[in-house]
Amino acid sequence: MIRIALATMMLVSYCPPANAQSKSTDYTADYQQTALEIYRHLISIRSAAGHGNVPEVANYLADRFRDGGFDDADIHILPQMLSSGEETASLVVRYEGNDSSGREPILLIAHMDVVDALPKEWERDPFTLVEKDGYFFGRGTLDDKFGITTLTTTFLRLKAAGFVPNRDLILGFTGDEESGMETTRSLAYEYRELTDAEYVLNADGGGGFLDHDGNAIAFMIQAAEKTFATFELTIRNQGGHSSLPRPDNAIYELATVLKNIEAYTFPTQTNDITLGYFDKSSSVTPAPFGDAMKRFAANPEDEEALAILRKSPLQNSVTRTTCIATMLSAGHAENALPQSATATVNCRIFPGVEVGEVRAKLFEVAGNDALEIEVGGNSVASPASPINEEITAAVTEAVHKQHPGIPIIPFMAPYGTDGKVMRQAGMPTYGVMGLFIKEDDEFSHGLNERVQVDAFYGALEYWHDMLTDLAGS
Ligand SMILES: [Zn+2]
Fold first, then answer.
1. What is the pTM of this model?
2. What is the tens place of the pLDDT at every residue in 78-133?
3. 193: CA distance to ligand 1 center in Å?
């Protein structure tokens, strides 16, 4: 899933204090070398759907944890046959604490699979980690072997330093985030006794943004994801020969249905996350959007502000459920009246709204009682996670240590990650990946995926600070 693209579209530079960019360029500490070695090895494994290589990733990581002093009993490779017939796996590793806080564990998630990459289309081999011009290139450098590597290395680093958390920390690495999230559901439900936690930190969502000059602008905590739901809309007809047209026609009727849906706008909605997002983003967003965000956050009934926000596809998506036609198929021969016409309508539903409500609304708006609507699989509503002060404070401290003063902004993603499954299962989830990225560098799923070298090592410090803050005595 695309995690952070779009979010930066309109952010302008926050002016950092003069000494904010203190960069060291030799990354020779043991844990930094370990991180690079793990990253390089993981990138070399083509763990895309259809290649059957995710278990190799899980086994490799399990060995690293064993070598790093984690008890065998705390390392769980969980093989799983996907509905596609492919064998995959997830990995759960528990970092046992001393329980002195008396609190439930923290679950940290990331995914071991990647979207496939075709070597002949890339400038460099996507399955070889290449460092060039201050960047790491390769499939998964960003999505999400970055998350896997930074979390794994942080566990190994803390263990080597003798750190004992005051509550258990659990890693939950999934094996099919990009294709079906079946392993995510297994971790959330079937293996819940291994993964149950007070809350979940997702290393595959949220994160920081840099401007074109590399200055940090803002950091997003992703606390909600819109529900993904796909509807198949079908009109049927008895058909006939096209030389003898009838007044009723499946294609014309479906076209009317779609025009009616196009004309409908779902009602404006807000929650704490979106209001916080508009309020805090306003200071780093240029006119006219920044001002409109501020006004809308103060008064969601400000129609003038809303009209401005609606001109931006991203800001509009944050204010409501959206539905849009994405595919069409109709008819069976050029000289036959169509016996059916079907449109695919994809909706991104505001948290708290049930899929069934949206289906009912589409039917009502369509204005054709003969319309059949089928709901696609995987369309399950996901709640927003309440803003968590403890996490916000830890993120703020860890981020400000490297990028003083930048705004920390709650965010509702219009797309989905493993986080939505965890939220559905009742565990509040926060996307807080430690990466800072320029908008131009957002190539996850695409060609020539890359991450700045500095940002990679910065994320190691960030996760170290986060975990010692949240689970240190
Ligand atoms: Zn991802």
1. 0.89
2. 999 999 999 999 999 999 999 999 999 999 999 999 999 999 989 899 999 999 99
3. 25
Report phi then psi at 323, rounded to 5: -135, 140
Instruction: Give the Å distance between the CA of 158 and the centre of ligand 1.
Output: 25
Summarised one tens digit per residue, pLDDT across range 120-178 is 989 899 999 999 999 999 999 999 999 999 999 999 999 999 999 999 999 999 999 99
For residue 302, the CA-to-ligand 1 centroid distance in Å is 36
Residue pair 127/119 in contact (Cβ under 8 Å)? The answer is: yes
What is the Å distance from ligand 1's center to 5 Cα? Answer: 12
Q: What is the pLDDT of residues 351-377, one digit of tens each?
A: 999 999 999 999 999 999 999 999 987
CA–centroid distance, 143 to ligand 1, in Å, is 5
CA of 225 to the centre of ligand 1 (A): 13
For ligand 1, the distance from its centroid to the CA atom of residue 469, given in whole angstroms, is: 25
How many angstroms separate the alpha carbon of residue 112 from the centre of ligand 1? 9
Distance (Å) from CA 265 to ligand 1 centroid: 30
